Amino acid sequence: MLTEGEYIILYEKCNSGNCTPTELQQLEAYHDTFEFSDRSWDETRMGRKDEVKTRLQKLLNEELRQDICASPNLFFSRQRIYSIIKYSAVAVFLMCFGIYWVSESHIFIDKKSNVNDHRVIAPGGNKAVLVLEDGTEVNLNDLIIGDFSIDGEAVAHKDTPGQLRYNSLSHSSEKISYHTIRTPPGGQYHIELADGTKVWLNAASSIRFPARFSGVKRTVEIEGEVYFDVAKQSENPFVVKSSGQEITVLGTRFNVAAYPDEEEVQTSLIEGSVVLNVVNQQYSLTPGECTIYDKRHNSVDKATFNPDAVLAWQNGNFVFNMEDIQSVMRKISRWYDVEVIYKGDMKEKLFSGTISRFGQVEEVLDMLALTETVTFKIEGRRIYVME
Predict the structure, then answer these.
(1) 189 in a domain, yes or no?
(2) Which CATH number belongs to the domain containing residue 330 in this structure?
(3) How many Å from the N-terminal Cα to the C-terminal Cα in the chain?
(4) Domain of residue 40, residue span
(5) pTM beyond 0.85
(6) Is the residue at 61 inside a domain?
(7) Which residues are listed as membrane-spanning (predicted)?
(8) What's the number of domains the chain is made of?
(9) Tens-place pLDDT, residues 247-280
(10) What Cα–Cα distance (Å) separates residue 116 from each residue in 167, 215, 368?
(11) Is residue 83 a contact partner of residue 64, using CB atoms and an 8 Å limit?
(12) Half-sphere exposure of residue 13, counting CA atoms within 13 Å on the CB side?
């Protein structure tokens, strides 16, 4: 099945008349689905599961029917696509742990949002800055597609608006230059290093790396959230340094979330094997395992994780798993490049669910407000979170 991001890309391709018959069939067959969760269902607090499910499905169908009446042609506009994604995300959101708030409070999806002072705050996109060793900054969005040269030497190649690929050929100079690529709040970027390792940067993240690798170890330094698909070189281990920990791999895929404003650093292994050195101890991971480094207490725990949740940001989603409102809003703040201010007691306000990152920030806040545990007010690029 197409992801939401693939659906939008394919829609735009078909809308411009460049779709193949097979792609058109994919587009027409696309639909979002959700599963009704049986986990931790308490009928005393939540009501009868089948009745709640029926009521929520009816509400969603009514909302979708209103949108279709307003725009009966499926291929009428991009807003129509976002409406489909929005309401399917509502379904997923309500069907998760947070559903008892809906059941107890009799929440209804209303066109009158709890979010006021509506202004257009668009989601993030492909944005990054390249910092050369001498401090020169290059806005990667300003680079045209093609070779990126330094002193007449083609160091890298910009393949697409969101990707920079470093050349694997040996450079004529013996000096090794270190580059840094950083994404701003509201940015993301894809880099391919000189050894063939693929790197994806989430918003407000950075990676420092050599323009070409030399020596036994291939060492890089990161901050923020970064996903790696490491090119295998059995005699040249790949080393990632971040927030007091060091990760050593040969060839593997893993995600590191190491934001300075987060209390924990999570390293999640998707494929292969990694060895971490942190707090003077060594930890080995197998696929499906992660380490959680608590920077406050200088402690480390091993656990299992849900790959769909860890990689949600790459698939264009927010995924919350019993997260407090501050954690939720930090993710929203980074992606939408907004300031968040809290008013009132935010303790024990937890959220679970999946919400698309494609829409405007108001759509995400609307869904969070459905729980009736918090309300929001937007002033410019400032979001107030209130009881």
Answers:
(1) no
(2) 3.55.50.30
(3) 39
(4) 32-122+317-386
(5) no
(6) yes
(7) 84-103
(8) 1
(9) 999 889 999 999 999 999 999 999 999 999 998 8
(10) 49, 57, 14
(11) yes
(12) 15
